[in-house]
Amino acid sequence: MASADLSEKLICSVCLSTCEDPIRLRCGHNFCRECVEDVLHTPEGSGSHTCPQCRDEISEGPALLKVRPLDEDYGTFCTDCTCSPLPAVISCLYCEASLCDNHLRVHSKSEEHVFTKLNLTCSTHKKTLTYYCTEDAACLCVTCSLSEEHRGHHVEPLAEASPKKEESLRNLRETLSKTQKASEERVESLKQYLRGAQEKAAAVTERVVALFKDTRRQLDILETKILKDITDQEEKATASVCDLIHELEIKIAQLSRDMKDVEELCAVPEPLPVLQRWVRHSVGDIEVVHDEDRSDLDVGLISVTLHTALSDIVTKVKRDFYVQQTPDIVLNLNTASNDLHITNDLKSASGSDFKQNRPKLPERFEYNQVLSTRSFPSGRHFLELETCLSGNWRLGMSYPSVARKGYHSLIGHSNKSWGLCRYLNQYFVIHDRRVVPVPHKPSSQRLGIFLDYEAGHIGFYELCDPITHLYTYTSRFQEALYLILSVYTGWVRIRN
C-alpha cells in the first residue's frame, strides 16, 4: 500500500510515466528532470514560471528553482527495478537487496531470506541517516547531529559505529550463549536431580513396602503363636478344672450316702446298734479341695513372649532400614557448664540459678552447654529427646572441636555445630550464624534428631501425631559428631 502511494507521487504529469531522474519543485510536485526543464524553459527575459501541474507561479528562474533528489525523501529504491526504480519497502538481509512491493511478491520466501523493514531516513528532516549518537543510541541525519539535542554527545559516522555495534552485539551474543548454555546445564542438572529423587523415592518405597510385608508376615506368625499359647493354656486350665469338678462331684455323692447312713443311725433308739455299726468316715478324714489346686491362665508368660517378639521385630525393622541401635546416651559432666544442673543419671540438663563449682577443665563450656559422652563417627542414628512445655533451649549436633568459650562456642554460631532452638514459643534452626525460622508452632514435648553421617544429613522432627519434619541440614562432615544441649530456662532430657 505504501509503495502504491509512492508510485502515484512519482508519476510525472508531463510524460505520464514514472519519473526518471526525479526532482521536486517547491510546490511539492515531482517530474522527470528532462521534462520539467523542457516545460520550464522560456525565452530570455521571461520573469515567471509556473508548475506544469498546479500552475503555481514560480518567481525564480529555472536556474534558481529549488530541486531535490527524491531519494532524500523516499530513502532507498528497489534494486530489482530496471527502468523506473520504485522506493524500496523492505530489505532482504540474505541477498543484501532492497525491494519494492512488486519484487517482494516474487522474491524467494525460503528460511535463509530474512526480511527487515527499511527506516533509513530521518523522520524529522527527511534526510538520509548518516551518523550515530552513542549516548542516545540513535541514528541521526546531518541536521540532527548538529542540533542542540545532541550537542556535546559522541557522534560518529555510521560506517564507524556499525563495526563497534556489531562487536558489541557479538559480545552480547557470546554472553547470551554462555548464559543459555549455563541455563541448559542447570536444567539438565535439575532433571538429573529430579530423576535421582524419583528413583530414590521409588527405591525407598519398594523397601518400605517389602519391610511392611515382612513385618505383617512376622506379626501374623506371632499372632498365631500367641493365640495358640492362649488356647493351650486355656485347654490346660479348663481340663484341670473339669477334672476337679468331676472329682468333687464324686466326693459329693459319697458324702450324701454317708450323711444318709449317719441320719439312719441317729434314728435308732437303742445305743448298742449305734455303737456297733461301722461308720465309713470321721470328720477328720474328709478331704477338702482348695482353690490353689486349679490351674490358671499365665498372662505374665504371654506378655513376656509378646513383648520379646515385638522387640525382635522392631530391632529387625531398624536393622533392615539402616538405623543403628543407639546405645545408652549420657551427658559428659566434664563438658557441662557451671551454669547447668545435670541430673545424677546424666540424662537431663536444666538451667541453674547457682554456680555448680565443678573443677576447671579445658573441655568445659563457659556458657550453658554440655556434650554427650558418645560420639557418632558414622552410620545412621535416631536420638529421642524430651523438653519442658516452655523455656529457652537449644539442642543439636556438634564437632568435639567446637570452641568452649566466647560467642563462637554457642550452638549454631560457627560451622562446627547445627542446632534447633526454641525461644518465645517458636522454633528456629541455626548454623554458622544463619538463623532460619521454622513455620511450625511447638506442639509436643518429644523431639527427634535423625543423623545420616555418610549422606551428610541432620534432621529435626517433632514426635507428635503425625510426626512433623521441622528442618534438615545437609553438609559434608569432617569430624565425629556429638549430641549437644544448651538450656537457659526449662529442661531437656535424653530418652535413648
Automatic annotation (TrEMBL):
Top-rank taxon, per record: Eukaryota
GO cellular component: cytoplasm
Single GO biological process annotation from the record: innate immune response
Membrane spanning residue stretches: none
Keyword Translocase (UniProt): no
InterPro entries, per database record: B30.2/SPRY, B30.2/SPRY_sf, Butyrophylin_SPRY, ConA-like_dom_sf, E3_ubiq-ligase_TRIM/RNF, PRY, SPRY_dom, Znf_B-box
Domain B box-type: 117-158
GO molecular function: zinc ion binding
Alphabetical list of SUPFAM superfamilies matching this protein: B-box zinc-binding domain (SSF57845), Concanavalin A-like lectins/glucanases (SSF49899), RING/U-box (SSF57850)
Domain RING-type residues, every copy: 12-55
The keyword Zinc-finger appears for this protein: yes
Coiled-coil stretches: 180-207
Protein name: Uncharacterized protein
Species per Swiss-Prot/TrEMBL record: Engystomops pustulosus (Tungara frog)
Source species taxonomy: Eukaryota, Metazoa, Chordata, Craniata, Vertebrata
